[in-house]
């Protein structure tokens, strides 16, 4: 069944504030703040890809807090998942879209941010598929000063707790792709193995994908938790980037 409990097919139109660029083999959406800065944040999209309106809204939101914000096409021009696709095919689709195989793309974007944008401190946030990519990169890439993984974790590696830099994990209480048991296990193991600051927070009543909804797509009961999760995400970035 559909793991996303909001209707991804009916998104309100979003007029973006940024622009698209080509970086080596990647396309990317970039939004800059109104003043110059040497701080940047990479945004990793979910299965719906780098053009999905919700993810561009998040890129613009982060830029509004004073960061050069960039969402590269981590699918490298291949088809993102679509709301009309059948979930029975999702496993096969994932085999060709592995969130743990993003290192090369991350390096290309880090180089661009440093050489073309003058970035000295770079954080990363990711949603769902992108949250898994963030978890992976925070274990592998010391250039990333801090990370926020929103409802995405690596489940099948004993090495997944040795984070290199501060990482914040955001979850919805009613996310039926990540159980509370998995969240408790993550917390328990991080206590044992993690040597850098980390945080885990579960937002009451929230489903998978809750935190990137645009204001006009929010339900009134969910709005306070969505806004809280975003504030928490930005606060974590501000603390470490």
Automatic annotation (TrEMBL):
Name of a matching Pfam family: DLH
Secretion signal, residue range per the UniProt entry: none
Cellular component annotations (GO), alphabetically ordered: cytosol
Location of the protein in the cell: Cytoplasm, Cytosol
Cross-referenced Gene3D superfamilies: alpha/beta hydrolase
Domain Dienelactone hydrolase: 27-239
GO terms assigned for molecular function: hydrolase activity
Record-linked InterPro entries: AB_hydrolase_fold, CMBL, Dienelactn_hydro
Family per similarity comment: Belongs to the dienelactone hydrolase family.
Identification of the protein by name: Carboxymethylenebutenolidase homolog
Organism: Sinosuthora webbiana
Lineage of the species this protein comes from: Eukaryota, Metazoa, Chordata, Craniata, Vertebrata
Gene name of the encoded protein: Cmbl_0
């Amino acid at each position: 069944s559909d793991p996303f409990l909001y209707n991804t097919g009916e998104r309100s139109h979003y007029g973006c504030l940024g622009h698209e660029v080509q970086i080596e083999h990647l396309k990317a959406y970039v939004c800059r703040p109104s003043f110059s800065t040497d701080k940047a944040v990479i945004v990793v999209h979910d299965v719906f890809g780098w053009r999905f309106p919700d993810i561009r809204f998040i890129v613009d939101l982060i830029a509004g807090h004073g960061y050069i914000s960039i969402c590269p096409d981590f699918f490298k021009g291949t088809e993102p998942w679509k709301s009309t696709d059948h979930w029975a095919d999702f496993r096969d689709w994932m085999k060709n879209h592995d969130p743990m195989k993003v290192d090369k793309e991350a390096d290309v974007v880090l180089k661009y941010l440093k050489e073309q944008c003058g970035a000295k401190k770079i954080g990363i946030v990711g949603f769902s598929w992108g949250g898994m990519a963030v978890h992976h990169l925070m274990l592998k890439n010391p250039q990333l000063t801090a990370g926020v993984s929103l409802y995405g974790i690596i489940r099948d590696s004993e090495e997944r707790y040795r984070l290199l830099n501060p990482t914040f994990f955001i979850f919805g209480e009613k996310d039926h792709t990540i159980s509370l048991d998995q969240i408790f296990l993550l917390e328990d193991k991080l206590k044992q193995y993690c040597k850098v600051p980390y945080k885990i927070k579960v937002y009451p009543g929230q489903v998978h994908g809750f935190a990137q909804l645009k204001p006009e797509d929010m339900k009134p009961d969910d709005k306070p938790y969505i806004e809280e999760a975003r504030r928490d995400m930005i606060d974590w970035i501000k603390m470490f980037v």
